[in-house]
Structures are given as structure tokens and as C-alpha cells.
Amino acid sequence: MLMIKKALSPKERECLYWVALGKTTYEIGIILGLSYHTVNFHLRNVCNKLDAPNRSAAIAKAFHFAILKLPSN
pTM of the predicted model, to two decimals? Predict the structure, then answer.
């Protein structure tokens, strides 16, 4: 059964959003004004909270739980 361990913080959601758009850790750091290490910290937390082994799985689970949504045209 799929479950979320804990709600994502706004910064975690923001980092995951940019990953879903194909941005690298370095690019996300520039966009958000964060260090490379801070972006990785938030994304590790996302993976842990969503019980995902990697970023791709975290994105899939985020769509499943409606944490991320497809853009409407």
C-alpha cells in the first residue's frame, strides 16, 4: 500500500517540481538561490518521505499522491 510518511515542506515541493521539469541539482540551486548541498538535502528528504529509492520514483509517487500535477493547457 502506498503511503506518505510525512508531508513535504514547501521547499521540498519546490525542489521536486524543478526535478520533474528536468533541472539538475546545480540548476535548481541557481533558480532557488540555494547551494548544491541544500538542494540535495531537500531531495533526499523527499525520497525518504515518499519512500522512493530515487528522484524518478519520487516524481512518480508525487504525481500519484497529487503532490505534483500536470500543467493544464
Answer: 0.89
